[in-house]
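Deliverable D2.4 — example input (structure tokens):
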């Protein structure tokens, strides 16, 4: 017995070894056996390796460092009963796509693959109910495409409760019934529940999506669908009008009248209290205004704008002096500055009119520094008598905006709060020009850091460049989420509109202004109009912002000034999109990167992988077709190395 206890751990270890010793090749061949009409997979043979190189690699597989991370067997006419168990022998597997085949029956046991990040099973003939707990253990899942099948029953509640990072959900063109679970994931960016048999109200977590998300569900009700959610009499219930029914109706009337009476009493009491509170508020406001005015002179206010590429003494060397006078500011429109963000303090128009001002140009102080003009106006850095430094932007391309429209839009922007976003602090309205006030950032803009005449030790190293790219992505996702009602949530993302804080984090400025700019001036004022779809069809969207982000990424990687900016002021530059795209196809893209980036790739394998991944993202963001560009939340996801291959994007080298 003692001997048995001694050898038992050894037996267990042998069992575990034999279980884990199955190769990826054997796992995939076993999986293939469960498929019928599998002739397209003839390259899957025992005498070859799944990831044997680009010419020998098994069809339908995606590999990373000789491990299978993706199975992409689409449009192959495959059918059969999918055996998922063999796939548990693929530890690196993160994505599966079997779309547009002929699979049928219940949903396969893909939930055994708990590390999956994306699953695409659309356009098959799967049917039946999906268990409510099906997705509970798939906590890494970010993309679930189950559309164009014949699924029935309720939407699995685990989709809403167990997947914290869910980004994309497609359930359209099925036969799901019942109410929609309340999806609360902030990451959710792409949802389609159309053409099912869903009923009830649209839950709050999905209220941000447009009506197309819910089309073809006659039982759904919501204000955005123009249908009332009041509950009517159940037509299936047969009720006889007898004495019992009459008594029930009477009791309902008593309850209704009693409730109305109680509400009436509550309203009277609340009105009395409200009057008392108003009197107290008036007294407080008078006291608060006095104290606020007294303390404003002691606040250190720092306020920024597009075009500001250097701070402090650097700026004064390359700027011309001037004054913000009554003539330059004007007296029509609003009587004073309207504060839309008081976190930096409160100040007024008289403070600006008395201040000495410097024009902030895009000249940069040297012919070798390209400019990125074509923004929304000229800028002044003003130093108020108390020592407060502010930057004021004079805007003349918004003279068609009404004061109510302007006030609403700028206040929306002033409410934004994010570590990588620089919102406006105040505005002054005139009919023919407006003033926008921003926080001043004393460091250089990204444009100046990338293209200015700097000593070698002032160059951005690779970790700094990566940090900037990640910060811009976070800030842009925040803008796309908070300003999703705009066709261009930013509209003018370029390196001159990105400033660097003391900790190296980027700060994005000059966003959300498209609706205020005169239509005739938008093409010259906003860099998003340099995207292919804008130049070709005059159409812009949030994906035009993604294109602009991709250009910034390529600019950071190469250190080259993009011709996409030059179109605004004929400053020259390199067409980075075509240049990098052509080099990537030929495998020579590394030679195009900035020397500091190339050196980082040569010194460290991890940095090399990061650089290739970021380049892949930049190329994908600047793609010709806006529908094929990623969303900003996808970009954030892909900037994490282990997520970089979720969407089958690769650059062959």
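Example output (designed residues):
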């Amino acid at each position: 017995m003692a001997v048995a206890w001694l050898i038992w751990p050894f037996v267990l270890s042998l069992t575990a070894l034999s279980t884990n010793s199955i190769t990826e090749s054997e796992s995939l061949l076993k999986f293939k056996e469960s498929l019928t009409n599998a002739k397209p997979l003839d390259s899957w043979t025992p005498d070859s390796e799944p990831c044997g190189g680009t010419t020998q690699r098994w069809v339908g597989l995606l590999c990373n460092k000789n491990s299978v991370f993706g199975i992409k067997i689409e449009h192959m006419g495959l059918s059969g009963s999918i055996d998922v168990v063999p796939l548990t022998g693929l530890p690196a597997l993160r994505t599966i796509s079997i779309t547009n085949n002929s699979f049928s029956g219940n949903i396969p046991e893909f939930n055994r693959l708990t590390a999956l990040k994306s699953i695409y099973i659309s356009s098959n003939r799967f049917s039946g109910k999906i268990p409510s707990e099906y997705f509970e253990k798939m906590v890494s899942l970010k993309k679930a495409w189950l559309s164009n099948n014949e699924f029935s029953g309720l939407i699995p509640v685990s989709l809403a409760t167990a997947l914290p990072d869910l980004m994309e959900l497609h359930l359209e063109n099925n036969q799901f019934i019942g109410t929609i679970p309340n999806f609360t994931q902030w990451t959710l960016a792409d949802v389609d529940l159309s053409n099912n048999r869903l009923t009830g109200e649209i839950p709050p977590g999905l209220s941000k999506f447009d009506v197309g998300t819910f089309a073809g569900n006659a039982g759904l009700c919501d204000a955005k669908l123009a249908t009332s959610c009041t509950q009517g009499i159940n037509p299936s219930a047969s009720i006889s009008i007898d004495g019992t029914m009459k008594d029930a109706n009477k009791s309902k009337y008593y309850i209704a009248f009693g409730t109305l009476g109680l509400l009436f009493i509550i309203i009277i009491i609340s009105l009395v209290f409200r009057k008392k509170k108003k009197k107290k508020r008036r007294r407080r406001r008078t006291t608060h205004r006095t104290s606020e005015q007294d303390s404003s002179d002691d606040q250190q206010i720092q306020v920024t704008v597009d075009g500001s590429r250097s701070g402090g003494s650097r700026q004064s060397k390359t700027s011309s002096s001037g004054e913000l006078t009554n003539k330059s500011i004007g007296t029509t429109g609003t009587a004073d500055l309207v504060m839309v963000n008081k976190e930096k303090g409160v100040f007024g128009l008289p403070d600006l009119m008395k201040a000495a001002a410097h024009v902030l140009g895009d000249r940069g102080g040297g012919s070798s520094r390209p400019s990125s003009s074509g923004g929304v106006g000229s800028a002044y850095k003003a130093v108020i008598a108390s020592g407060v430094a502010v930057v004021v932007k004079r805007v003349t391309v918004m003279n068609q905006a009404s004061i109510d429209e302007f006030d609403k839009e700028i206040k929306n922007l002033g409410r934004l709060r994010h570590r990588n976003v620089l919102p406006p602090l105040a505005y002054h309205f005139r009919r023919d020009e407006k003033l926008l006030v921003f926080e001043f950032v004393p460091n250089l803009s990204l444009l100046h850091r990338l293209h200015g005449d700097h000593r070698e030790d002032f160059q951005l190293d690779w970790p700094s460049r990566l940090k900037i790219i990640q910060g811009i992505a976070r800030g842009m996702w925040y803008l796309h989420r908070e300003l999703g009602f705009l066709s261009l949530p930013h509209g003018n993302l370029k390196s001159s509109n990105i400033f660097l804080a003391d900790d190296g984090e980027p700060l994005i400025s000059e966003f959300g202004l498209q609706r205020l700019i005169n239509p005739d001036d938008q093409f010259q004022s906003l860099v998003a109009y340099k995207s292919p779809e804008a130049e070709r069809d005059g159409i812009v969207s949030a994906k035009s912002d993604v294109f602009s982000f991709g250009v910034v990424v390529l600019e950071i990687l190469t250190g080259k000034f993009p011709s996409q900016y030059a179109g605004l002021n004929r400053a020259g530059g390199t067409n980075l999109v075509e240049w990098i795209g052509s080099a990537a196809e030929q495998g020579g893209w590394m030679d195009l990167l900035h020397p500091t980036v190339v050196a980082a790739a040569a010194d460290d394998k991890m940095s090399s992988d990061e650089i290739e991944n970021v380049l892949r993202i930049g190329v994908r963001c600047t793609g010709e077709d806006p529908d094929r560009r990623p969303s900003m939340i996808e970009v954030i996801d892909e900037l994490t190395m282990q997520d970089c291959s979720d969407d089958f994007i690769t650059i062959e080298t």
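The longest strand covers residues 389-395.
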